[in-house]
Every structure is written in C-alpha cells, then in structure tokens.
Here is the input.
Amino acid sequence: MAWQRRSFRGTNLARALNVADLRELARRRIPRFVFEYVDGGAEDEVTLRGNRAAFDRLRLLPRTLIDTAARHQRTQILATAAQAPMVIAPTGFNGMVYTQGDLVLARAAARWGIPFTLSTVSTVPLEEVAKSAGGRLWMQLYVMKDRAIARDIMQRAAACGYEALVFTTDANVFGNREWDQRGYRSPGKPTLQTMFNTLRHPRWLASVMVRNGMPRFRNLESFLPPAAMTALGGSTVIPKLFDATLSWDDISWIRQLWRGKLLIKGVLTVADAERAASLGCDGIVVTNHGGRQLDSCVAPMDVLPEIVAAVGGRLAVLLDSGVRRGTDIAKALALGAQAVMIGRPTLYGLAAGGEAGVERALSILTTEFDRVLGQLGCNQVADLKPEHVRRR
Here is the structure.
C-alpha cells in the first residue's frame, strides 16, 4: 500500500510536533464528555472555525539578509518583563482534565516566565495556587448575581498578591454549547453512552475521580449549595448565576475593591476599547471567548488593527481566541497586540500528559515563534510591524 499522510496517532509526547498533535493525543486520553467541554464551541461553531480562518487570511512578508542570530522572545506584558509574549488564559473545570490541573498550569507558566490566569471556577483554591506555584499570577473574575462572590474573590486574590484582575465581560449570558450538552441525558446526568465511554479511560478515572474525588469549585465553596459544588453538579447551576445586569458602571465598583492592574476581557469594538481606556483600565483582551459564547461572532484578529489604532497608546491590548501556531503569535503581535492568551493549546497538553504535556505545548509554541521571528528577519518582539502582514 502506498504511504499516505495521516494524523498523529502516537502516544509519545516528544513526538507531538504541534498543537494539533497534542489535541489528538488529548482526545484519546480523556473521556469524550471532558474533551467536548475543552474543545467545543457554541451552537454551529461558526465562531470557533472563524477564529482560525481569520489567522489563515493573513500572510507573512519576510525581510531577507538580516542577522537574526541573537534573536529572543523577551518582552513586557503590563509593563513587567516576560520571557515570551504569551499568557495562559483563564479556563474553568481544569481539575476534570487532569488532577490539580490549575496548579500544574500555573507552575508551568512560572517556569516559562509568563503570566498564568486562574479562573473564578477553578478546582484549586486561589490561595493554594499562590502558595505553591509562584510566578506571575492573574485572577479572572466573573461577577455573578450575588455580588458577595466577586467581592470575596477580589479580596482573597489581593491578599495573596495576585498581580492583575481579568474581568470577563462576555459571559453575562451563558453560551449555548450544544456538543458539550450532548453527553448528558439531563443537566448534570451523563448518558449511558457517556458513562460507558468514561469507563474506557481507567487511567483518567483513577487519577481524577478516585484519587481526589469529583473536582470541586474550590473558590466558591462558601457560596454554592453542596449539590452544586462538584464539576458535574455545578455545571448546571453556575450558568444560572451569571448576572445579565452587568454594565460599565460596575467598573467603578470593582476599582473600589481592586487596587491592582485591571484588564477587561471580552472587547471586540473600538467603542468598548475606548470606554475601557477612558475608565483607566490597564488593559483589554480582544476575544470572543474562544468561540464558546456568541456564534457567528467576529474574529478578534479581524478587529485587532482598528482597536490598536484607537487605544494602543493608552492601555495594553492582548489577543485571545484561536492561537495554535507560532505564526499566529507573530501575526497578532505584528498587528499591535502586546501578547496573546492561550487556552486550548495548554489544555490539550494538560490532557495529553499532565505537567509534561503543558511543558510540551509551551515548548512547541515558543520554538515555532522563535523560528518565525528569524524567518521574518526579526530579532525581538518589538521588530514585528504591520508591514510584516498582508491580508489575503
């Protein structure tokens, strides 16, 4: 039979050559319902696919005969040194992917010299992450109907020395993630097929469910009823807690409670970016929540240049959603982003191999980005300019 190309089917992390390989390995390592939670998007997943298509529409234009032997990735994120222009994005339920998943991700970020953002709905307490991980820690904030939850999160994060607060504003109404729902016969109750599939992953069962029990929302223990504390039970309750009354007026309330750096995550228009700048926010994250909220939503890469042009001199602009390659990082930075947030790539690594898998994901992305810098004729992040990018 003639040799044919085929997707990665190995089990050796060292032979995973890109994020897509880690995704395939993750798909086989964890139960289907967990993978769908990590991988899926809202409704028809038009936004999810559009995030990748937006990167694909951009082409890179290299300069030649430039000495790039001394190139490096060191940069500034929120006016503080970072070893690479990346931030690990906030993702919830990580304990369902790998035991102590939040802590594993935070430790990897510290070793690589980049910030890590802990989710409000993490399964490791924010105090434990601060005590055990080190490095630059950011705290993601969901403001729910019970404002005491947000107040508690901010006060605890400040007491533990978290550097920045990342206020997520695009989840006031929870997204309709249909593929995530298909694993349940009713909210919080897996189908028989889901249960049988889960039994086919004994290593995951032993490490995640048996060793430590069902992961719990450890930052919310004082506020949720016992039946809603676990990752399965809470997944049906927490979406109902999100507050649809959120408005720009809440920024002043947050500022009264939070004295550190403040980023608004969920910006996709120049008007909103300018409002954030006028209110004294330290940064914004241009994102559509990784395609998990509004379907048929614009891709962040399509609006990044106009947002940077409007507010790039007044606050930090970060790009999130769809980053899978070093070329993606280069395109975002060339168009004015200070850094990119990565969510699924490190989650694929976490699912594929725990701590070693996260290390592999970060190694792949930084190696790719280093290579792209050299091929473009750039020695540092600051050398990347809009003229390095052409729209197809």
Notes: The mean pLDDT is 94. The CA atoms of residues 169 and 247 lie 9 Å apart. The longest strand covers residues 261-267.
